[in-house]
Write a structure and sequence with these properties.
Blueprint: E1 3-11, E2 20-28, E3 31-36, E4 48-51, E5 56-59, E6 61-66, H1 78-81, H2 84-100, E7 103-108, H3 114-121, E8 129-131, E9 136-138, E10 164-166, H4 169-182, E11 188-191, H5 210-222, E12 227-231, H6 234-242, E13 247-250, H7 256-265, E14 268-270, H8 273-282, H9 290-312, E15 316-317, H10 333-358, E16 376-379, H11 393-396, E17 397-402, E18 405-409
Parallel strand pairs: 1-4, 1-5, 6-7, 7-8, 9-10, 11-12, 12-13, 13-14, 14-15
Antiparallel strand pairs: 1-2, 2-3, 5-16, 16-17, 17-18
Bound molecules: zinc ion.
Length: about 400
């Protein structure tokens, strides 16, 4: 079994504990064997050694809300612009770029099918471990229905990498959830309220009835997994939580009532602040229509406040970026934005440990601990004093290890 020894590292282990100043991490095969507070004893001759030189070693980052198939900023048009093969090829590029940014695990929040996950798992393409939802479920006129109000055609179906399925009523919704589960998804995604990047709904609405939502949750749980919901408004959050939805995505319009519901249910809030920041800066120049930029700005205004309320109420706060198209290279910005409420360490914990719990993978991922998979990044600098360091990933992330394999080493 191969041995990798990382010496002289400031170790931030992802649990929120104080850093270890000058520690060693020993990796055997694909897992972490042990963490030593100082220098290692005898290092086996055949071991690969990396002298971290005081740089900061962290668990590989996890982004719990991405759309790898969102290859363009204007996701409502991309299926009209590109052949399916082009969408797939550009999606592969997005996947690899996420690993380059130090994200060793991604949860795709709708659109990508299980084939992308398997391509990474089989080593056909370099990329983060993927967890996918396949096609997100949307009601007619909901967040996943990208028809303009003027269009009379049937809903779009099976768009490569960014698939949605429009379904209404308990029976259709149940069948759609079962269909996605049949196709090997890791969890089921449902649109529980209006969204920014859809043409015919507003963000302060709710979508789907409690009966429909309960049918989705029932089918997901019957298959041994869970359901996630896209939500902004308090009403949509409360509908979803009371129906058993486990992860609440975005939540920008959350109030105390909604936060209490999340807390009491032991559910997760997955704020996605970076995408609002970036679309409000770049969206217009990247071709996003005015109506959608308007909604983005409405959501952006309330985003930090929602995280503050959820934090104060004691909700479990996970982390996603939800970035689109060329903006997907700004994943590291999510930590900076979250740190404004949670502090740098809180932002790191959300992006590592809490995200691993959300994935139900806390035994394998999310912290630097003996027995866990060796997903590690080495950062040139101290993220506790400079949380922006993750955004300069090309120069500042010196080493990326995934499952004990060195993907990048520029030391
Ligand atoms: Zn999303």
């Amino acid at each position: 079994m191969s041995t990798l020894v990382l010496t002289r590292a400031q170790i931030i282990d992802g649990t929120g504990a104080d850093p270890i100043a000058n520690g060693t991490v020993v990796v055997e095969g694909d897992r972490i064997k042990e963490i030593l507070p100082g220098a290692p004893g005898r290092i086996p001759a055949e071991a690969v050694t990396i002298d971290c030189g005081g740089r900061t070693l962290l668990p590989g980052l996890i982004d719990a809300h991405v759309h790898v198939g969102a290859v363009d900023a204007n996701i409502m048009e991309q299926q009209r612009m590109y052949h399916p093969s082009m969408l797939v090829i550009r999606t592969l590029k997005v996947i690899q770029e996420a690993l380059d940014q130090g994200f060793t695990t991604l949860r795709d929040a709708g659109g990508a099918d299980a084939g992308f996950r398997e391509a990474v798992r089989q080593g056909l393409i370099p990329g983060p471990r993927l967890f996918v939802a396949g096609a997100g479920l949307s009601q007619t006129g909901g967040h996943g229905d990208i028809r303009l109000p003027t269009e009379r055609r049937a809903p779009y179906a099976d768009v490569s990498g960014l698939a949605m399925t429009v379904c209404d009523g308990v029976e259709e919704v149940r069948r759609a959830a079962r269909e996605q589960l049949r196709r090997g998804v890791d969890y089921v995604k449902v649109m529980g309220g209006g969204g920014c990047m859809s043409p015919s709904d507003e963000i302060d609405t709710s979508q789907y009835s409690p009966e429909e939502l309960r049918a989705v949750v029932f089918e997901a749980e019957a298959a041994g997994t869970y359901a996630a919901a896209h939500v902004y408004s308090s009403r949509s959050i409360c509908n979803c939580v009371s129906s058993g939805i486990r992860t609440l995505e975005h939540g920008n319009l959350l109030d105390e009532k909604a936060a209490r519901a999340i807390k009491d249910a032991g559910a997760f809030l997955v704020p996605t602040l970076a995408t609002y920041e970036m679309i409000s800066r770049m969206g217009k120049s990247l071709g996003i229509p005015d109506n959608n930029v308007r909604k983005i700005n409405e959501a952006k205004e309330r985003g930090l406040e929602a995280v503050a309320i959820a934090h104060r109420m004691g909700c479990k706060i996970a982390s996603g970026s939800d970035l689109l198209g060329p903006m997907q290279v700004f994943k590291g910005m999510e930590l900076e934005l979250k740190s404004r409420i949670l502090g740098p360490m809180g932002a790191i914990v959300a992006t590592t440990k809490t995200n691993a719990e959300l994935l139900k993978k806390e035994r394998d991922l999310g912290t630097i601990a003996g027995g866990k998979l060796a997903d590690l990044i080495l950062v040139d600098g101290d993220p506790l004093t400079d949380i922006k360091v993750f955004q300069q990933y090309r120069e500042k992330i010196s080493v990326i290890v995934q499952g004990g394999r060195i993907y990048k080493n520029i030391l």
